[in-house]
Queue: 2 jobs
Job 1
Amino acid sequence: DQQVKQNSPSLSVQEGRISILNCDYTNSMFDYFLWYKKYPAEGPTFLISISSIKDKNEDGRFTVFLNKSAKHLSLHIVPSQPGDSAVYFCAATGAGGTSYGKLTFGQGTILTVHP
Amino acid sequence: NAGVTQTPKFRILKIGQSMTLQCTQDMNHNYMYWYRQDPGMGLKLIYYSVGAGITDKGEVPNGYNVSRSTTEDFPLRLELAAPSQTSVYFCASRTGGHNSPLHFGNGTRLTVT
């Protein structure tokens, strides 16, 4: 039962254009969502997050949008740079202290930004 | 500041062998986690710990054991290695702050043949 899904295994964009990575979830108890970026032979690194009380969070070139009614979130990267080429994981966690910070991850999307 | 350190980076095991994957963090984080990542799949939680002396099962605990005798260390033990345990293993830690992000190590790539 895949509670967090990233339906696009890969995405290819031109440098300077927008990259949009999508993520869907099924568990209505999730209330906090994160994006992680992973380079080969390294561990995932935290990129940006959003709480369910918001519908947008921005950090520099990265913006995450949350549509609770559709159980959908997206990560926008503008402008895309070759150094953004990596695997991007969407993750979600449930409410309150009982979640203990445990994350449920999507399958990942491989982003390639061409110069 | 080293962060989360995992050893070894690579290991090949024969079926039935045992080994311990080491994980240590120097950030004084209370929460620690072990995840595995299979090709084309997301990370799945094996075990986690909310502090020294406290551990609990995650989504895929079968075939693994953990211990947490200190805040810094969270080793993962494979007792009887099976081909299904071929994967990349990531250790992570976080503070106890609400929704604080996980900090990951660089992983251990394990092959069981």
Job 2
Amino acid sequence: NAGVTQTPKFQVLKTGQSMTLQCAQDMNHNSMYWYRQDPGMGLRLIYYSASEGTTDKGEVPNGYNVSRLNKREFSLRLESAAPSQTSVYFCASRLNREVEAFFGQGTRLTVV
Amino acid sequence: AQKITQTQPGMFVQEKEAVTLDCTYDTSDQSYGLFWYKQPSSGEMIFLIYQGSYDEQNATEGRYSLNFQKARKSANLVISASQLGDSAMYFCAMRRSGFQKLVFGTGTRLLVSP
């Protein structure tokens, strides 16, 4: 019963490097989300995808891009990482007719 | 704009006691949902309980109940009979009906002592 799976769990990048965070869900959910969690600030929405083939900006989209590859997968890309993007990143998914979102385990990203 | 306020950075409770974690929210919408999530030290976010703005009864899920006071715009989480495993960060969140974004508060760290 995998739920929402994120890879990698930990990553250290140098400033200017690029990387893609992967997320996959096996619950046949319509909506998928990327959040970041910073100390003292709770979670903030970066991007979301309400259905396969659509993506929309959230609260803090600058410096990120996303791809909804298919219904299962939603990736987050950092094209040129900056120290301000050091954070814990969470992917989540939700079946539109249900209220609760299910979260992955998180990816701890450090940009040096 | 929506906002969630959790004014208690940390709370302490003894095992088997009840504890209330405070949450107030600000919205001009009439239809919205309120959520509580638990984040243990392992880092994952675990959904605990949900309250719809039109629900007349307070939500309950096992030892968790949500004390919903709409006029005061508060949605406090009550944990009865605390257990050591309840030690974690707790986040209150809100979503406007028909919208995708969850807005989170800054969290309350609960420590349960033996």
